[in-house]
Amino acid sequence: MREPLDPDMFDELCPSSLTPIRFGDKWAGMIIRCLEDGPRRFSELRVPLRRVTPKMLTQSLRGLERDGLVRRTVQAPQTHTDEVGPGGAGGRPPSGRIEYALTPLGRSLLGPMAVACAWADEHWEELLDARESAAGTAESARPAG
């Protein structure tokens, strides 16, 4: 059994949050990192990606699936002997577990992503200074009102 994902996996002060290199949409790189150690359910991905709305996480996963980086698998539902009728309790068929996993193509991004994170870690101070400078420039450019 694999370890649960760390809720603080993507701390705001993590170099991976500073890298200006994007893999897919805003959250794609973080999702790929979450799937690095094996398949995960949506609820497991939500733990370290708690700042991502469920709608946005779903859209990002669909984009990664469309691009061939992530595979969505519906596991066969587990039936219980105490279910009532063919549809189980309540007349609904039991639903399967949905898991997301990296494809070989998705796994091939892990190396380049590690290089980008190492670069961001090496240039941490410069990136922070540049962002602070840009934020100050944007503030001074706003008209007084």
From TrEMBL:
Residues 73-98 are annotated as: Disordered. The keyword Transcription regulation applies. PROSITE patterns: HTH_HXLR. One of its GO terms (molecular function) is DNA binding. Keywords: DNA-binding, Transcription, Transcription regulation. The keyword Transcription applies. Residues 14-128 form the HTH hxlR-type domain. This is Helix-turn-helix transcriptional regulator.
